[in-house]
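Exercise 7. Given the encoded structure of a 302-residue chain, write a plausible sequence.
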């Protein structure tokens, strides 16, 4: 076995640590993880972890959310510069203005956001629970931050609510265009198109199924179809192929790659386990305020 993998296993035991990973990190990192999943699954796991230390293989909002949900744990990020650009694409002044304008508004914050944005929000959501949670809210008006594409998808599923959109987006999902989808479908006419709701609305129109990373993996695994065209970050292909060696998966383009997620390496995991560098810090005040919408998400999604 790879000596780095051996060392990680040893260090995990010594330090009483657990490794959590999102489906977008490199294959060899997913292979050493104790828990792999989508953002919702990983936040639920973070609340229940018994070990002293969580090594979070993902981007900063994920490690931050784990620390907020389970503050007594040490949360280590293998690369502290791994950040989600979309997490910063909303601003507090606009939230305050919308709240002043609409008496009955809920600020619904995609978990891909900074802890500061969460602290000004009423509830967090992920791509797998956003529709359920928005439906369950008593408010008529929904200000959905930061992702405009997920917001449009949810708005379509919950037409009884009035949505106020924000202009944030994921650069990787936004980069998948209808032209790309049409060309990929022509190359693979038998393939079903499974797509993440962070993609633009016109791309979602071509979908056979729309869902979070875990939902895409579950759908393909249960399906009797043999070929799938995947409209999300290419890292999901690792788990898709692990679970379905008899099926074939294609990406729509050759650039479905989140460079921040790919910053996580086995070397960096070893390093933070040895040194405890990359420990996530969240101030008490921010932790208390950001914990409220995160916990409300966990409650409403039950
Ligand atoms: P999910 O994990 O909810 O599918 O979201 C994808 C994503 O972009 C995470 O950064
Ligand atoms: Fe952020 Fe997009 Fe990367 Fe997910 S894939 S972490 S939304 S930039």
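Solution.
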């Amino acid at each position: 076995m790879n000596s780095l993998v051996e060392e990680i296993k040893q260090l995990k035991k010594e330090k009483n640590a657990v490794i959590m990973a999102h489906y977008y990190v490199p294959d060899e990192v997913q292979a050493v993880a104790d828990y792999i999943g989508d953002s919702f699954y990983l936040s639920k796991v973070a609340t229940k972890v018994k070990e002293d230390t969580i090594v979070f293989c993902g981007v900063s909002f994920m490690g931050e959310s784990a620390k907020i949900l389970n503050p007594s744990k040490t949360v280590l990020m293998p690369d502290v510069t791994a950040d989600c650009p979309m997490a910063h694409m909303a601003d507090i002044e606009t939230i305050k203005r919308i709240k002043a304008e609409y008496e009955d508004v809920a600020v619904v914050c995609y978990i891909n956001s900074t802890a500061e944005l969460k602290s000004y929000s009423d509830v967090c959501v992920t791509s797998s629970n956003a529709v359920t949670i928005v439906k369950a809210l008593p408010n008529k008006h929904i200000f959905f931050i930061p992702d405009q594409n997920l917001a449009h998808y949810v708005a379509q599923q919950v037409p009884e609510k009035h949505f106020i959109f924000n202009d944030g987006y994921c650069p990787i999902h936004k980069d998948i265009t209808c032209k790309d989808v049409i060309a990929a479908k022509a190359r693979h006419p038998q393939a079903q198109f499974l797509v993440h709701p962070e993609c633009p609305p016109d791309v979602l129109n071509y979908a056979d199924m729309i869902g979070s990373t875990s939902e895409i993996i579950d759908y393909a695994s249960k399906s009797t179809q043999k070929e799938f065209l995947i409209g999300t970050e290419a890292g999901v292909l690792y788990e898709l192929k692990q679970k379905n060696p008899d099926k074939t998966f294609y990406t729509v383009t050759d650039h479905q790659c989140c460079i921040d997620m790919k910053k996580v390496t086995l070397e960096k995991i070893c390093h933070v386990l040895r040194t405890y560098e990359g420990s996530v810090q969240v101030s008490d005040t921010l932790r208390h305020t950001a914990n409220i919408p995160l916990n409300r998400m966990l409650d409403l999604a039950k």
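Remark. The two ends are 40 Å apart (CA to CA). Students should compare their own answers with the one above.
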